[in-house]
Amino acid sequence: MENTPSNIDISFITINYNSSHHTIALVQSIIAHTLSDLNYEIIVVDNASEVEDYTNLHDTISSFPQVSIIRNRINNGFAGGNMLGVNSAHGKYYFFINNDCQLLNDTGSIMKNFLDAHDDIAVVTAKVTDEKGHFSSSYKQFPSVIKQWFGNSIHRALSSKSFPSNKIHLETPTAVEIISGACMFFRAEDFNTIGGFDTIFFLYCEEEDICKRVWNYGKQIYFLPEAEVFHAGGGSSIHNVALEKEFYISYKLLIDKHFNYFARFFIKMALTLKQFRRIFTKRHGLSLFLFVASGSPIRDSLRYKQKIQLDKN
């Protein structure tokens, strides 16, 4: 059946940023593992990659009929890039997947069938494994005062909802609190109703924010071990002090958005104390402590350290 906007089942949405080799492998895995009778589209948002990388991406995958490439002239980050993809998406489901992932089975069909049977669930994720085949956590806990001061175990023990530890290898579909942004499969209607990703976040914490809003919306989030995805990790980023600072900027935005004054105060106090202890044990420890202690100012975000590209290829 020919794909038209009215009959698309799944819109796969991914972001390329100077890592076209990963994106190409992801697209190939989607085509190889997705059932032929499933109507789907693959939307690749190029977040202002260098021309050489974009050219490699375009020349390799643009001929696939399922693929659309959106060339962005500025890097909008994770949330902004994905929302740009949503603007062109027609699927009944949105499958947001990092470009350094690959499908290991018919992941899209598995997750679609599960959501088709459960109207009370808005988003699911797959079992994600690393390059050694080891289970890589796909779910975690939302921040809290107790978690920040005393850790995950105490937080779970005192929480009103019994979400599983991310150290447990779940073997059956299970409700979880937060899922990884590397693999998020949404019912489009629910995603659109809650407003999608909040583009105030440039990198990091987008998944915590949107999962919190899913629960506030009155729907559930599930982990599906039958669906399997490989995640290489670090496909489009290099771990450095600038990215660490970006995390703390996003974390501050998350805390400010979802907590009252007193909770914000105690969470930030605990975070500052932890950074102080790391001054003598972690590279760039002093720099990060001073950054966090100064309030992780958003003006230092990587969002504001880029230029708009002139090419329109």
Detailed description of the structure:
Helix 1 (20-33) runs parallel beside helix 2. The strands form 2 sheets. Strands 1, 2, 3, 4, 5, 6, 7, 9, 11 and 12 form a 10-stranded mixed beta sheet that branches. A two-stranded antiparallel sheet has the order 8-10. Strand 1, helix 1 (20-33) and strand 2 form a beta-alpha-beta unit. The two termini are 31 Å apart. With 313 residues, the protein is of the alpha/beta class. It has 2 domains: 10-231, Alpha-Beta Complex (Spore Coat Polysaccharide Biosynthesis Protein SpsA, Chain A); 241-304, no CATH class. It has 11 helices and 12 strands. The chain is 39% helix and 20% strand. It has helices at 20-33, 51-61, 77-87, 107-116, 145-150, 152-158, 188-193, 206-217, 241-258, 261-277, 285-293; strands at 10-16, 40-47, 67-72, 93-97, 101-103, 121-129, 135-136, 139-140, 174-175, 178-179, 183-187, 220-231.
Q: How is this structure best summarized?
A:
The protein is of the alpha/beta class and about 325 residues long. It is built from eleven helices and twelve strands.
Which descriptors would you attach to this protein?
single chain; 313 residues; Spore Coat Polysaccharide Biosynthesis Protein SpsA, Chain A; 10-stranded mixed beta sheet; 11 helices; 12 strands
CATH superfamily of the largest domain: Spore Coat Polysaccharide Biosynthesis Protein SpsA, Chain A
How helical, in percent, are the residues? 25-40%
Largest sheet: 10 strands, mixed
Number of continuous helical runs: 11
What do we call the CATH topology of the largest domain?
Spore Coat Polysaccharide Biosynthesis Protein SpsA, Chain A
End-to-end gap? 31 Å
**Which architecture of the largest domain does the CATH hierarchy give at level 2?**
Alpha-Beta Complex
Structural class: alpha/beta
The radius of gyration is: 20 Å
Number of strands: 12
Q: Which sequence of SSEs, written as H and E, runs from N to C?
A: EHEHEHEEHEEEHHEEEHHEHHH
Q: What coarse outline follows from CA principal-axis ratios?
A: globular
Number of domains: 2
State which percent range the strand residues make up: 15-25%
Mean pLDDT: 91
Poorly predicted runs of 5 or more residues: none
For the record, the CATH class of the largest domain is Alpha Beta
